[in-house]
Write a structure and sequence with these properties.
By secondary structure, the chain is of the alpha/beta class. It folds into four domains: 21-120, NAD(P)-binding Rossmann-like Domain (Rossmann fold, 3-Layer(aba) Sandwich); 159-190, no CATH class; 197-310, Cobalt-precorrin-4 Transmethylase, domain 1 (3-Layer(aba) Sandwich), CATH 3.40.1010.10; 314-456, 2-Layer Sandwich (Methyltransferase, Cobalt-precorrin-4 Transmethylase, Domain 2), CATH 3.30.950.10. Helices cover 31% and strands 19% of the residues. The protein is built from 15 helices and 18 strands. It has helices spanning 29-38, 54-63, 90-102, 140-153, 158-167, 169-172, 179-194, 213-221, 233-236, 259-271, 290-300, 312-320, 350-354, 368-377, 452-456; strands spanning 21-25, 44-48, 66-68, 80-85, 107-109, 122-126, 129-133, 197-202, 224-227, 244-247, 275-280, 303-307, 333-337, 358-362, 385-390, 398-403, 420-424, 437-438. A six-stranded mixed β-sheet has the order 13-14-17-15-16-18, covered by helices on one side. It has a five-stranded parallel β-sheet with strand order 3-2-1-4-5, with helices on both faces. The protein has a five-stranded parallel β-sheet with strand order 10-9-11-8-12, sandwiched between helices. Helix 10 (259-271) runs parallel beside helix 11 (290-300). The chain is globular. The structure holds S-adenosyl-L-homocysteine.
Length: 457
C-alpha cells in the first residue's frame, strides 16, 4: 500500500479534446514542443504568436493549425479547452495563466509549475491506447527514459488491436456481465501471443547500434532467443533479461546443431506457444538458411515473420566508403558465396562480374584462390580492385585492399579470425583506402608469420 506521504499531487486523467480548440501562446521552441505533443490528438491547435520561428511555421503549414499572428490578447483564449503559456517571457506567461484562470480554462505554463493547473505527460501513443507518464515535473528526463523503454516494449499494432476490440464490443455485450465477459476479453487480448510465433530477425553485422528498432522490440518481447554463433553476445544481451537463450552454432569447430535440428527446435518452441526470436547475423534472408526454417514453420502451421537486417556486404562497404553501385562504372550488385564453387563449371555470376557488376563474396576466405582463379579464367582482369573487411562494423575491424591477383593471399592469413567480406569490381576503386592495409604484402609469406605487424613493415 502506498504510504501517506506517497500521494500524488497531480492526478492523471484523459481529457476529451476531439474537435476542441487548444491554445498555445508562443512562437519558439517551447511552443513547438507543446504543439507537437498536443498535435498527436485530434484537438484543433490555435497558435498565438505575433512572430513564429521557421520550424513552428512549417509545423503550422503541415498540420493546418490555426495561426493567430497578432500580439497576445486574452480574447485569443476564448473557447479553448486548454491553454499553454509557452512564450518564454515570464511576464507574458503569467498574464496568459491569469487570463486563462479568469476564463476558467485549465492552463499549463512551460517551466513554471507554480502557474500550472495541469502537467503534460511523456506520451506513448498507440491511439486509441495511450500511456502517459508523469513525474509532477520532478524528472522530465526520467519520464522520457521510461517513455522510450515502454515504447520499445509495445507492438506498433497495439492500437489496431484495441480498435479491433472496440468493433467486438457489441458482440461481447451479448455475453453475461461479469466473469463470462471478462474471460472473453482476456482470451481476445491474449489470443495472439498464446499461439506461438517465430520472428526470423536480422541482427546486423555485429555493431549493436546497427540493430533495427523492430529487432530490438522483438528481442524485448521474446520468451526464447535462438541465435547463431556469429551474433555477438552484446546483441543477444539486448533481449529480455529472463528470456531463454539457445546458441545453435554454427562456428567452425564448435559443437553446433545441424540445420535439421534447428528447424525441429523452432517448430517445437512454436508448438509450446513461445514467442521466439531466431537471431541471425546480417540479414536473415542472405545466406542465412532462412528458406529451410520458413518451410519447416509453414509445414507445421506456425506463424512467423521476417525482420530484415543490415547485411555484411553493406557494413563492409560502409567501412570502406565504397560505392557498391557507381554511376557509369557499375550498375548491378551480386551477393554470392565462394563456398559452393564445385566442379569445373564457371559460377553463374562470373559473367555478371565481367559485365561490370560489383561482387560481394560471403564466406569467401577459405576459397579466395578459387574465386580469384575462376574469375580471371572467365576473363576478368587480374588488376580488378578488391576490398576485404574483417569484422565489418565492429571496433576491431580490419580493412585490406588490393587486386584480384592478390586475393589468393587471403587464404594463408592466420591473423584473420573474424568473419571476412570480400568485395570485387571496378566500383571498389572508388573506396577510401586511407585506413586499409595492402593485401599483396602477404602474398609470399608463410602462414606462421602472417601477423598484423608483418603487414605494417
Ligand atoms: N546473413 C548474413 C551472412 C551469413 S553468412 C548477412 O546477411 O550478413 C556468414 C558470412 O557473412 C561470413 O562468412 C562473412 O563472409 C559474412 N559476414 C558476416 N558478418 C560479417 C562482418 N561483421 N564482417 C565481415 N563479414 C561478415
Amino acid at each position: 500500500m502506498p504510504q501517506a506521504n506517497a500521494k500524488l499531487n497531480a492526478f492523471p486523467v484523459f481529457m476529451r479534446v476531439e474537435g476542441e480548440a487548444v491554445a498555445i501562446v508562443g512562437g519558439g521552441e517551447a511552443a513547438l514542443a507543446k504543439a507537437r505533443l498536443v498535435g498527436q490528438s485530434s484537438a484543433v491547435l490555435r497558435i498565438i504568436a505575433q512572430t513564429a520561428e521557421a520550424e513552428l511555421l512549417s509545423f503550422i503549414a503541415a498540420t493546418g493549425a490555426v495561426h493567430v499572428a497578432a500580439a497576445y490578447e486574452a480574447a485569443h483564449l476564448e473557447g479553448a479547452a486548454m491553454v499553454f503559456a509557452a512564450s518564454g517571457d515570464e511576464a507574458l506567461d503569467r498574464r496568459v495563466a491569469e487570463d486563462a484562470r479568469r476564463l476558467s480554462i485549465p492552463v499549463n505554463a512551460v517551466d513554471r509549475p507554480e502557474l500550472c493547473d495541469f502537467f503534460t505527460p511523456a506520451l506513448v501513443n498507440r491511439a486509441p491506447v495511450a500511456i502517459a507518464i508523469g513525474t509532477e515535473g520532478a524528472g522530465p528526463v526520467l519520464a522520457q527514459m521510461l517513455r522510450g523503454r515502454i515504447d520499445r516494449m509495445l507492438s506498433p499494432s497495439l492500437g489496431a488491436l484495441a480498435t479491433l476490440a472496440a468493433s467486438f464490443r457489441g458482440a461481447a455485450e451479448r455475453l453475461p456481465k461479469g466473469t463470462g465477459r471478462r474471460r472473453f476479453w482476456r482470451d481476445f487480448f491474449a489470443g495472439a501471443p498464446a499461439s506461438g510465433h517465430i520472428a526470423l530477425v536480422g541482427a546486423g553485422p555485429g555493431a549493436e547500434d546497427l540493430l533495427t528498432l523492430r529487432a530490438h522490440r522483438l528481442l524485448m518481447e521474446a520468451d526464447v532467443i535462438v541465435h547463431d554463433a556469429l551474433v555477438p553476445e552484446a546483441i543477444v544481451a539486448m533481449g529480455r533479461r529472463d528470456a531463454e537463450r539457445l546458441p545453435v552454432g554454427k562456428r567452425k569447430g564448435c559443437h553446433s546443431k545441424s540445420q535439421e535440428e534447428i528447424n525441429v527446435l523452432l517448430v517445437e518452441l512454436g508448438r509450446e506457444g513461445k514467442r521466439v526470436v531466431r537471431l541471425k547475423s546480417g540479414d536473415p534472408l542472405v545466406f542465412g538458411r532462412a528458406g529451410e526454417e520458413m518451410a519447416a514453420l509453414r509445414d507445421a502451421g506456425i506463424a512467423y515473420e521476417v525482420v530484415p537486417g543490415v547485411t555484411a556486404a553493406f557494413a563492409a562497404a560502409a567501412d570502406f566508403e565504397l560505392p557498391l553501385t557507381l554511376r557509369g562504372v557499375s550498375s548491378s550488385l551480386v551477393f554470392t558465396t565462394g563456398h559452393d564453387l564445385k566442379g569445373n563449371s564457371l559460377p553463374d555470376w562470373a559473367k555478371l562480374a565481367i559485365s561490370g557488376a560489383t561482387v560481394a563474396v560471403y564466406m569467401g576466405r577459405s576459397v579466395a584462390a578459387e574465386v580469384a582463379g575462376r574469375l580471371i579464367e572467365a576473363g576478368l582482369s587480374p588488376d580488378t580492385a578488391v576490398a576485404v573487411v574483417e569484422n565489418a562494423s565492429l571496433g576491431n575491424r580490419r580493412r585490406f585492399h588490393g587486386t584480384l591477383a592478390d586475393l589468393p593471399s587471403l587464404e594463408a592469413r592466420a591473423d584473420l579470425s573474424g568473419p571476412v567480406m570480400t568485395i570485387i569490381g571496378d566500383a571498389v576503386a572508388g573506396a577510401n583506402f586511407e585506413r586499409s592495409e595492402p593485401l599483396a604484402a602477404h602474398r609470399h609469406e608463410d602462414t606462421a608469420s602472417a601477423t598484423a605487424e608483418g603487414v605494417e613493415q
